[in-house]
Specification:
This protein is mainly beta. Helices cover about 0% and strands about 45% of the residues.
């Protein structure tokens, strides 16, 4: 069973940047679609970015488009979320997620229900 551990969160001023990392252990990481989600206090979990198993296709929603970029390194079993021009409304716990139920499927997923493995989350706080 794959396990995911996020890192890279912290406190940053508005306009700053952070890069989140997620390392996988177990499973067949290179065959999984991966995603990032976030959850702010009192709000529902929100989709942030997704990437296909081979990194050929990515998708980010309009709320972060042009600011957030997802990438992966299958040799290192890592997925990254580069966040630039951060805003206070980006403050949340960020989660890495894997769809380990389909393999080598050149599809990215935007729904939380499409992912079956989740990390513990990393806090990102953006001050104004």
């Amino acid at each position: 069973q794959v396990q995911l551990v996020e890192s890279g969160g912290g406190l940053v001023q508005a306009g700053g940047s952070l890069r989140l990392s997620c390392v996988a252990s177990g499973g067949t990481f290179s065959s999984y679609a991966m995603g990032w989600f976030r959850q702010a206090p009192g709000k529902e979990r929100e989709f942030v970015a997704s990437i296909t198993f081979n990194g050929a296709n990515t998708y980010v929603p309009g709320s972060v488009k042009g600011r957030f970029t997802i990438s992966r390194d299958n040799a290192k079993k890592m997925v990254y979320l580069q966040m630039n021009y951060l805003k206070p409304e980006d403050t949340a716990v960020y989660y890495c997620a894997a769809n380990s139920r389909t393999y080598y499927n050149n599809v990215y997923y935007t729904m939380a229900s499409s992912y079956d493995v989740w990390g513990q989350g990393t806090q990102v706080t953006v001050s104004s």
